[in-house]
Amino acid sequence: MGVESSTLRVLWTIVEDAVSQDVFEMSDTALIAMLMRQVSNQVMLTGDEVNALYAYIGSKLHLIRDIAAFQSSGPFHLSA
Prior knowledge:
The protein is mostly helical and about 80 residues long. Helix content is about 70%, strand content about 0%. Helix 1 crosses helix 3 and helix 3 crosses helix 4. It is globular and about 35 Å long. It starts with a helix and ends in an 8-residue tail after the last helix.
């Protein structure tokens, strides 16, 4: 089972809002755990969805850190 599009929208909104030095200082595991926790606070996930989302976030860590770097470098904000 994949990740629902509504869950992905929640995730990427969290990523856009979570820009801070913490993102750069966190280990991959800690960053994934933080994002998983924040998503699961907003969306009820099944066990399969948790596994799929964990894998998805893990595959997007470079992009997540690039977004954080871009947003912290100027007044720009990505819109959905």
